[in-house]
Amino acid sequence: MTRNPDSKPAQQPVADGNSAILRRFPFDDTRDFDDARRGFMGTAAETVIRDAGGRVVWDLGAYGFLTGDCPGTANPSLWRQSRLSAGHGLFEVAEGIYQIRGFDLSNMTVVEGERGVLVIDPLLSAETAAAALALYREHRGDRPVTGVLYTHSHVDHFGGVRGVVSDQDIERGVPVLAPRGFVTHAVSENVYAGTAMARRAAYMYGAALPKGERGQIGAGLGQTTSTGSVGLIPPTLEVTRTGQSETVDGIRMVFQMTPGTEAPTELNIHFPGHAALCMAENATHNLHNLLTLRGAEVRDPREWARYLTEAVDLFGDSTDVAFASHHWPVWGRERAIEFLTEQRDVYAYLHDQTLRMLNRGHTPLEIAEAMQLPPALERAWHTHGYYGSVSHNTKAVYQRYMGWFDGNPAHLWEHPPVASAERYVEFMGGADEVLRRARESFAAGDFRWVVQVVDHVVFADPDNTEARDLQADALEQLGYGSENGTWRNFYLTGALELRHGPVGTPTTTAAPDLLRALTLDQLFDALAIRVDGPRSWDADICVRWTVKDQHPVAMRLRNGVLTHVTGTGPASCEPDVEVTLDEDTLRALLLGETPLADLVEQGRAKADGDLAKVDELLGHLGEPDPDFAIVTP
Fold it and tell me: Distance between CA atoms of 600 and 619, rounded to whole angstroms?
């Protein structure tokens, strides 16, 4: 266990609140622990997983401290969830189906076929995926990988693919299956808003926090994200419809498409020969996110609930075990159906009740405060908000239907954070008076108010050490009391950055494979996002790209907007320069890897017109900031 030397003990109100949790919920129910241990076959002898350079990307032993009693600095419910999620090793789910759990944020599932194995969701990093496959082979023999399946478009379910197969394997005929639209969503999520999402993911998963009772103890869905090499091998076979059946290496699968649920493109899988149902990430042992704290498209809980009903209808009578790409399985037909039904009910309830309250005029903050799950659902451990939360999920439902505005005109044109903070602090009698009162609130245990009010002092005067220290202390206490793993990580990472400065972005997902997987349309769109608009208002540049076996594309920067048009029709423009080259060379040029002049000199490109216009256009692109401030201005 790593101790953060700046961390403080739990204040009495937090410790008392955590003790009350022990009396509120059925901690004597051990079924989850029994299920999490069931089928255990062994784990790796070497607990540290490193990359080729020797850097640690995952440590299986980092959470050993969770075997102890829950301290006052952690919510006992989250401690229980993290203890369950930290278990690592190879587990038998059903005859011929195995999972490697605890080697990354997600699980890797291995299904044995006639000649080899089908790998489902090969983790986030190549290094952790390779270690997981090695553990399977240690116990089940050196079987080749004869197929790969991605259940959905989030990086922790495909990023480690190069740890289990190579490009040569694919060329030899190893299929890669994924739901329709997989590549589009996988790459757009990690490129368009990828920098901001990755920065906020550093807070969400707490990868920079020390592991321990006063630091990172998990993220609810799993422990944290690995920090190894991210890759992508595009699918060779698309699943396009519910009921579609495919057989890979003798393994028959029947698919259910579930777009717009936990991911924009996702599927569930039934294995008729095993009476087993893989629910991807649509039914895990927690309340999931309708909008993640790192950012994403808002998910549709109404459709999510409908797809869970459909899964029970389609597969309930032929399922003896339900498992997912996170957490542990549920065995027994009756228990599996109950699990899926309760998962369905929690998303439907949050959707319907949020709509009921917003139609009575309640705002997102009011709905979040008023929302409470029915007792029967709250008693089920798997509906607890360890990853998503009732609070931020209801706000997501509101956002989906009503947008950011709560209807109060006072909130329509507020000052931005720094300008507001300066005015608030002045109104409240100056920083010293605000901090004096905030310390009184801290002593009274009103940490939520402390972080709300001291935030104004930090934003009005970011060099105010007293304000930063008090804000860090209050955030820390809120983290200690949080049942939600990602809330705890956000609070504690905020405290860490206030005390020591930015931690950066430990896990980077905009990997070369993802950039290569962008279509040219997506690549042009990604560049348009980087245009420095105000600096480009007066620019008017047109470049036409002529790529072999493709229609020409005219790219124009005008009015601060970078557009692209395929073909030479009326929407196109008269080029200042026309560049002829192949697609790989165009990508290298647009990504800034090689200047056009060098490409022309090497004979890899031909330019007709003013070559300088290409550099001028690319010069209007700005670079994103992976270390932007969050808890300071």
Answer: 19
